[in-house]
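Sharing a chain and its predicted structure for anyone who wants a worked example. Both blocks are below, sequence first, C-alpha cells second.
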Amino acid sequence: MSVLHPDLLTTETEGAIPVRFVGPDAAIDAAFGDWAEANGFKGKSGQMLVAPDGQGGIAAVLVGVGERFDPMSARALPARLPPGLYRLEAGPEEAHAAALAFLLGAYVFDRYKARPDRDRVRLVAPEGLDVAAMQRIASACALAREMIDTPAADMGPLQIETIAREIASASDASLSVITGDALLEENYPAVHAVGRAAAPHRAPRVIEIGWNLDRADLPLVALVGKGVVFDSGGLDIKPAAGMRNMKKDMGGSAHALALGRLVMQANLPVRLVVLVAAVENAISADAFRPGDILNSRKGLTIEIGNTDAEGRLILADILTRAGEHSPDVTLDFATLTGAARVALGPELPPLYTDDEGLAADLLDAARAVADPLWRMPLWPGYRASIDSELADVRNDSAGWAQAGSVTAALFLQKFAPTTGAWAHMDIFAWNPRARPGWPEGGEAQALRACFEMLKRRFAQG
C-alpha cells in the first residue's frame, strides 16, 4: 500500500530555501526586484521564478498567486522546484494548507518504469503543523490514486481484498469476504450477476471491514465503494475509446478503503463499516444480458436495460447491506456515470443527498479543505424514468429524462439506508489533463472533504 516518503516533510531547517508567495501588487525585495522585472515575473497565478544567490545557488523562489492565494497551487511545487530543501513563507493557516498541497503534489506513479531513484524536493514542516496527521491524509489520497493507477491485470478483486485485509489488520478491525457462488448463498445476487462472467481467479466478492462495532455508545458510519476493476461494458460492450481508462472504475472502492483507513488511523470516536463490492464486468457465455431481470438483496427486482450500467447494480446490494447496520451516516463513492462529467466536468464531483444538514456539512468541509463538491438534485420528477413494466426498477433510465447522473442517484436512493443520512458522490477519480502537481491519472476526489466532515461531526462532538 502506498505510503509517501517519510522525509518529504522534515523538521530540518539548515540550508532551507525560502518560497515566497507573491501577488500582483506585492512588494518584492530589492534584492530580487530587478531579477523579477528582467524575467517578466508579475505575481500572476502559475508564475514561478527561481532567484539566484550569486554563488551558483538559489536565494529564494517566488511563486505567483494572482489576486487571491490558493494553497492548492502549492501542489505544483514538487514537480517544478529543483531538488533541495525549502521552507514556506506564509501565515500559519496558509502554510499548513500549502504543506498538504505540497504532499499531494509529490505523488508519482512510477511502478512500471525503470528509472534510478530521483532526488526529491523536501519541505520544512511549518511551525505548529501536526505532521503525522497531515501525512495520514496525504497517504490516504496516495493510496486511492495508486490503486486507481494500477492496471486491471494487477488490481483485480483479489488485490482489492488483499489491501482491505492489510488495512483491517493494521487497526485490529474485523474483515469478512464473500466470494464467487457463495454470494448467492449469502444473498448478494446482483453482485454475483455482474461479476460471474470473470475468470475464476477474478471472481466477484463483497468485502466488509468492521471497526469499533462493540461500542454501541458511538455513532455508526458506513462507507460504501464501487469496485469494478475493469468495465468492458459487458454484452453492451464499450467502444475502444470508452474502455481505455476503465481500470479506474474501481475508484469508488479505493476511496472507501482509503477513507476508512484514515478514520481508523485518526481514531475518530465512531463505529465504522466499510463495504466494497469488487467485480470485473467481463464478457463470456455466462455474462448477464440485456433484458434479464435480477434479484437484489433488498428484494426489489431489477430489469437490465444496459449491461454497461452495472455499477449501480452492485451498489444496490451493498447499500442494502450497509442499511442492515442502521448507520447514522452513509457515504458512497462511485465512478458511476459519464453524465456527471457532461454536467460538471472532470474536476467537480456531484454530491447527492436528501439530508439538508449533511449537504451543508459536506459543502462547508469541501470549501474548508479545497476539495470541491457540487450539490445536484435528487429530482423526484425523474423517478418515473427508472420504472419498469416487468420489474420493480430498471437499471437504465428512459431517454426522456436525459439527466443520467441524477437518475443513477435516484436508483441508488431506492437501496440506500433509511436510518441516518446518506450521500452519494459520483466521482471521476481521474486527471485527464497533465500539469505540474496533477499528473494524468488517478485522483482522490471528495475524500478529504468527507474526512473533514466526519471530524467536525464526531471528533468535536
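Comments welcome. The chain has 14 helices and 19 strands.
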